[in-house]
Amino acid sequence: MIDIHFGPQICGDLTSAASREWLVPDGLGGYAMGTVGGLRTRRYHGLLVVPGETPASRQVGLVSLDPAVTLPSGARVRLGAHEWASGDVDPRGFELLERFDLVDGLPRWRWRIGAVVIERELAMLPGRSCVAVVHRLVAGGPVRLELSAACTWRDAHGERRADGPIPQVEAVADGAVVEGAYRLAGPGWAPEGQWWLGVHHREEANRGLHPDEDLWYAGRFSGELERPGDTVSVRAWAGRLDEEPPPATEIVATARRRNRQVVAAAKPTDDVAATLALAADAFVVRTNHAAVDVVAGYPWFGAWSRDTMISYEGLFLCTGRADEGRELLRAYAATLSEGMLANTADTGRVEYNTVDGTLWFLHAVSRHVSVTGDTDLGDELLPALRTVIDAHVAGTRYGIRVDPTDGLLTQGAAGTALTWMDARVYGVPVTPRTGKPVEVNALWINGLAGLAELTELAGQSADELWRHHGQATASFRERFPTPTGWLHDVLDAPAPAYPLGGAALHDDDALRPNQLLAWSLPYAPMEPDEATLRRIADGLLTPLGPRSLVPDATEFVGRHRGGPADRDGGYHQGTVWPWLLGPYVDAARRGKMSVDDVFVGIEAHLMEYGIGSVSETADGLAPHTATGCPFQAWSVAELLRVRRKSQ
After folding, report:
1. What residues does the Glycogen debranching enzyme bacterial and archaeal type N-terminal domain cover (predicted)?
2. I need a surface site. Which of 108, 162, 560, 631 has the fewest CB within 10 A?
3. Lowest mean pLDDT: which of 249-263, 340-354, 520-534, 609-623?
């Protein structure tokens, strides 16, 4: 894997250290997460964040373990870091960090206080909501180490305040149980019990959300580090509280060994591919129901079918996880209703509200069979997949139907946004894209061809599927090209002056990246033209991927910043989406264009936001600062997939 480490100038500078985040997943949808400098900048940061019934329904438990070292001289040095509502940052332990490393996906900090060097390692026990934090004396000593446990128990999307109930902390032999939900265990436990008021989260302030909360100082652990190699360790776990996990050092060793196995199974061809393989592992989880699923992004997303299916090839087929992928595809097929794939929303409700998620599912099944040769799965799912085609031809929810006049797929209903560009502001879709979106129809044509091949592999006639495919392809090639050289984004869209269903229709020729799928998919309807692709690249391409809208458009928003309404308003109006680098690279390769230089910026990005991973979004204007989730499934998956194809 790539060597990720930072020295004292990065670690000791608050802005630099606090803008680089690490993630250690538990394999269930929970995690430990924080920053290189140790400062919690988000309400979502914590050492033990526990998944609920769904990965999105997480609870924050153990927030931090603040180290303090008592030197032989008697001086006490605090190594933690907190920002307060007053604007103060205290303590400032990051200023004593001499190095941070991400080793086999696990964070390691090293503080130096003169001759004394103390190291911290952190890991989660794979498959269990359990974190282990190991502190080791590397040099100097003897010293006494205290670890102050700041705790809460709340929804990850909120905050808890001192004007509410005091957290219930029950003492046990080697620590405490907090709110009956999780247990802390370590040496020398001494209960305390007081509020730390006004802990500030700068990233929540930047996102226009309430930035402050109060934490409960439950108590502290302590132990002696007499000689180099001595350790003081703490574990925290949820779930089966009476089932004690292995020793902390063993948990770290187990996690490291597993991460190496994950990387080896992916058979990476270089260090970047190895890093991406481990990054991909964070998103593949076993839920409380033991089902395989995909977390769309950390720290705030749960499972979304569209994201899962776009990510499928990269997360499963490029990492040696086809068996788990098979299990996932079968489970998702069982959710089909009226020809639509369920979109398991972060609310926990099963919803049917995408036009493209189902078509991406067709693509994922087709790719699985093509890559693995698993025709048994194709045969098994074929009847369910045929219901998708039949329902789309006949018409299903939200006006999704095949237009019999041209064979293209149309969609839309009042107040809906059914494509991946689905942001809303105060409940109103920003980009409803009602009509015949370009990528939806590219996916429809791709899905028809893929299903026709699966049908023929099963020894059945695919004549009707090929008929639909031929009509849609001919119409696509005739209708989507614009006089300007690129493709229309939406055909037969309601004219701006008319409401949905009004008499006037128009074809939207906004330069957006959705058209890339018309050249990138395995059964793409168009042959790529180098001049067209270069024009698209000139308008949309950035170091982290394509913009969602060309900068000279009236609606372009160059900074993905501000409160929820500001951010959602610009989400698909110019914001950069790294996952779209996958379709761009595929289209460029099919057009015989060199893409060797395209990966330079995004590979460097692996060291600068969600370290070892790829962000959800970035600003549309230079310098294209990363935004959104620091760790995003489809961003990682698509980069992993298209890099693998080039090697």
Report:
1. 20-227
2. 162
3. 340-354
Query: Are 254 and 146 found together in one domain?
Result: yes
Do residues 553 and 596 lie in contact, with contact meaning Cβ atoms separated by under 8 Å?
Answer: no
Dihedral pair phi/psi, residue 50, rounded to 5°: -105, 130
- Is the confidence at residue 107, as pLDDT, over 60? yes
Same-domain check for residues 85 and 215? yes
| Parent domain of 516 | 267-643
pLDDT band at 254 (very low <50, low <70, confident <90, very high): very high
The Cα 455–Cα 463 span in angstroms is 10
Domains held by the chain: number = 2
The pTM assigned to this predicted structure is 0.96
End position of a domain, from candidates 258, 290, 320:
258
In whole angstroms, give the CA distance from residue 326 to residue 323: 5
Q: Secondary structure of the chain: what % helix, strand, coil (to 5)? A: 30, 30, 40
Supply the pLDDT for residue 455: 98
* Structural domain includes residue 173: yes
Query: Taking a C-beta distance cutoff of 8 angstroms, is the pair 238, 205 a contact?
Result: no
Do 275 and 407 reside in the same domain of the chain?
yes
What's phi and psi for 296, nearest 5 deg?
-70, -35
The reply to whether 528 and 627 lie within a common domain is yes
Separation CA 638–CA 312 (nearest Å): 9
Token pair 């309807």 in the structure block, residue? 525
Q: What is the mean pLDDT of residues 397-418?
A: 96
Rounded CA separation 634/612 (Å):
15
